[in-house]
Amino acid sequence: MDGRLVPWHEATVHVLTHTLHYGLGVFEGIRCYRTDDGRSAVFRLAEHVRRLFESAHINLMELPFSEDRVCEAIGETLRANGLAEGYIRPLVYIGAGVMGLNPADNPIHVAVVAWPWGKYLGEEGMERGIRARVSSFARHHVNAKMTKGKTCGDYVNSILAKREALLDGYDEAILLDSQGLVAEASGENVFAVRRGELLTPPLPTVLEGITRASIVELARDKGIPVREAGLTRDELYLADEVFLTGTAAEVTPVREIDHRTIGAGRRGPVTKALQDAFFAVVQGRDRKYERWLSFV
Asked: Are 231 and 224 in contact (CB under 8 A)?
C-alpha cells in the first residue's frame, strides 16, 4: 500500500474513502503462473501495468508512482506472500478528504494485492464448457462511460448482469451493446468460430483485453483466420464454437447460450487448440512467446 508492504489485516481504508462512495478508481487483473521449470512468471506484466496507467489517465487520476515501481511492487507482493502462482490486483483509488462528486485534492493511493485463485468459471467449465445467457442489461454506451478503462464503478453493470445470470441458473452473462450487437461477457471478451473463421466483436464497444489480444496473435500464428466483426445474438446461437477470454477466465468454452446448444455442445477443436496454445505459453513450454512472461 503506497509503496510499502503491509500485513493483510492492516490493509484497510477510511470509511470516507472517495472511491468507496462514488466508484472512481481503476484496477487491473493479472495472473502469475508456475512454469514447467519451477519458476514463477507474471503474464504480460508490462501491458497490464500500462493499461492501469491508461485507465487512470482516462479518469484524470495521476499515480504517485512510475510504471516500473508498480511492476516492482507486484513482484514484491508475490514474494512476500510466498505465491508461486496466483491472481494479482493493482488498485488505484481516491482517498479520504472532501466529499461530493469533485474529489479535488484528495490523495491518490495505490495498492497491490495477490492471492491464490483457481479457475474462475470452474475446472469442469474449462473442459466441458459453461452455460451463458444474453443479459437484459446492456453494455455501457461508449459515451456513457469510456470503454478503454477498467474503472471500478463501471463494474456495477457487470455485477448486475452476472447475478441475473446466476439467479437464472446460468454460469455467465453476455451483454449486448447499445445497438443490440454482442459486446462482451460480464468480465470477459467473446469469441465465436463460424465456418472455420474466428470472430470477435470490434474494439470500440469492448475492453481492449490483453488475453483477447494474445489469443488473436496465437490464432493467426496457427493459421486460423481472425476477423473483428459485429455479431448478433443469433449468430452466437449458430456458431460452431463460442469461448470467453480474460485474465480470470483464461480461455473458457461456452456450450450453451439461452437454452441453445452451441455446436456439438462441448469444447470444440479450435477452442481446445487455443487453450492448449495459451497454457503452453503461460507455463513456459512455448519459448516463442517468452517475451510475454516476466519471471519473479
From this structure: no
Q: pLDDT > 70: what percent of the chain? A: 100
User: By C-alpha distance, which of 147, 188, 177 is closest to 59?
Assistant: 147
DSSP, collapsed to helix, strand or coil, labels residue 129 as coil
CB 125 within 8 A of CB 94: no
- Residues acting as catalytic residues: 150
Q: Are 174 and 141 in contact (CB under 8 A)?
A: no
Task: Report whether 89 contacts 112 (CB < 8 A).
Answer: yes
Q: How many residues does the chain have?
A: 296
Read off the C-alpha cell for 74: 507486484
Question: Which amino acid would we find at residue 5?
Answer: L
Q: Which residue has the cell 479450435?
A: 270
- What does the alpha-carbon distance between residue 258 and residue 134 come to, in Å, rounded to a whole number? 7
* Non-local CB neighbours of 145 within 8 Å, separated by 6+ positions: 151, 154
pLDDT in tens, 4-36: 999 999 999 999 999 999 999 999 999 999 999
99 close to 21: Cβ distance less than 8 angstroms: yes
